[in-house]
Structures are given as C-alpha cells and as structure tokens.
C-alpha cells in the first residue's frame, strides 16, 4: 500500500460511524421532551408579567395594611371615646340614667326593635319619603341652577323671588304644607323637596358663575359652540361645588323629614322617636336617633363616592 493510498484509507469512515474528531452532543430526556412539547401558556412573557403584577399588588397591599389599620384606628378613636363616655357616665351617676341610659341598654333596645320589625318598617317609610323628596329636588334644582347661572336674563327675572323663599325656613312652612296638602305622604315629600332645593340650587348657581375664566377663554379660543362649551367646560368644572350643595341637601332631607314625621305621621323614624318619648321608652328613643345618624353617614358617603367618580379628572387630594 502506497503512502497516498494509506492516507486516503485513514480519512475514510464507514457510513453511520461517528468520527472522534466531530463529537455530537447528546440530548438529555428533559431537553428532548421540552423540544417536543410546546411551552405552557403561563410560561409566555404575558403570563409571567401577569403573575409578577399580581405579586406586586399583593406586596403593595401588605405594605399598606399597617397604614390602613392606623388610619382606621385614628378615625375611630373619637367615636369609641364617645361611646365609652356614654356607657360610663350614667353608671357612675354623672348623669341621670333615666334620661340618658347607658349605651349597652340603648343597643339592646335597638336590637329588640330590629328583631320585631319595627325598626325596618319605620326606616323604610322614612327612606321612601326622604329619598323621593331628595331625588325630586335634584331633578328640579340642578337644571334650574345651571340655567340661572349661565343665562343672566333668567337670573335677573327669578333673582328676587329666590331671595324671598331662600330666607324662609322650611319648618316654618310646615303648617302651610299640612293645611294645603293634608297630613299624608304628599305634604311630607313636598316639605323635603322644598328644603332640599335651596342648597342644591344656590350651590349650582355659584358653581356656574365661578368657573375659572381662563378655562372659558381657552375653550372660546378653540371656537367651541355654546352647547359644547357648556358640556365640556361648564359642567365638569361645576361638579365639585354642585355636589357640596347636594350633600348638604342629603342631610337636610333626613332632618326635615324627621321633624315633619313628628306631626300627624303613623310611621317613620320621626314617629318612632316621638312615640317613644311620649311612652317614656327612652332607650327606644335613642335607638331611633342612632339609626337616623347611621343613615345620614351612609348616605353622605354614597354621595362622596358618586362625586369622586364624576370629578375623577381632578388631581387627587393628599389624604
């Protein structure tokens, strides 16, 4: 064999035989399985980002938990102190417990009224009258306030009449409403409408008239029509002040109704308080008062939530 032939023989390999100079990496079972089976959906970048976002929100909530607990305790300390004072003052003889029973007795009386259904029936009657009158007042006062605040001739025409009635107390007109409309539901709802109209109306007029002039100039420079100017600038800028009047009207609707229910009513929280006083059921009387306070606070918080949603364009205030 010649040297040339021997060299050619050494470089030639049989088919299917792997040369030692060219090693082929071996595939592990895990690698082969992963290449054969597609990656699950959660392993995609979108799934990973979703998991990380959820974990980040959870960590943020955990970090804020001590702050929220401290904030809640700070807001509750005054109420807790008042209830402790209410409980201890009658028991130690600081006040006559006949006229101011301990809070535990009032809570027991409240539970008794709730169990036998008296509290629910009277609260339902009061809420129907109060919310009905409040809704009618909003439906009337908001458009009228926008009209008076936007159009000067309408303000000049109705201004003197508004000044006369805004300075007349609603309870002073209660006998007039009873004489004209009777002692039924109509007179009670009407007195609520009258009492709620003025806070909403006056605050709406003030809100429209006190819109930032810079906003109006910018809007007019964009050649907006009067309806578009009213929709895009006047209404959004008027919402905060307008809702101040609506929240005041929400409180007034309950207070005025309670006073109206003490005259000629057969159901309602005002009737419950008045009947308990006459029957010398003092714990039941305070139970009715507490119920009215709880309804007022809840209603106010509901209006605050609606206001925040309608005025979400504003920068959030530091809390």
Automatic annotation (TrEMBL):
<feature type="region of interest" description="Disordered">
    <location>
        <begin position="1"/>
        <end position="23"/>
    </location>
</feature>
<feature type="transmembrane region" description="Helical">
    <location>
        <begin position="252"/>
        <end position="273"/>
    </location>
</feature>
<feature type="compositionally biased region" description="Low complexity">
    <location>
        <begin position="1"/>
        <end position="16"/>
    </location>
</feature>
<dbReference type="InterPro" id="IPR000515">
    <property type="entry name" value="MetI-like"/>
</dbReference>
<feature type="transmembrane region" description="Helical">
    <location>
        <begin position="164"/>
        <end position="183"/>
    </location>
</feature>
<comment type="similarity">
    <text>Belongs to the binding-protein-dependent transport system permease family.</text>
</comment>
<protein>
    <submittedName>
        <fullName>ABC transporter permease</fullName>
    </submittedName>
</protein>
<keyword id="KW-0472">Membrane</keyword>
<keyword id="KW-0813">Transport</keyword>
<dbReference type="Pfam" id="PF00528">
    <property type="entry name" value="BPD_transp_1"/>
</dbReference>
<feature type="compositionally biased region" description="Low complexity">
    <location>
        <begin position="29"/>
        <end position="40"/>
    </location>
</feature>
<feature type="transmembrane region" description="Helical">
    <location>
        <begin position="131"/>
        <end position="152"/>
    </location>
</feature>
<dbReference type="InterPro" id="IPR035906">
    <property type="entry name" value="MetI-like_sf"/>
</dbReference>
<feature type="region of interest" description="Disordered">
    <location>
        <begin position="29"/>
        <end position="48"/>
    </location>
</feature>
<feature type="transmembrane region" description="Helical">
    <location>
        <begin position="285"/>
        <end position="304"/>
    </location>
</feature>
<feature type="domain" description="ABC transmembrane type-1">
    <location>
        <begin position="123"/>
        <end position="303"/>
    </location>
</feature>
<keyword id="KW-1133">Transmembrane helix</keyword>
<keyword id="KW-1003">Cell membrane</keyword>
<keyword id="KW-0812">Transmembrane</keyword>
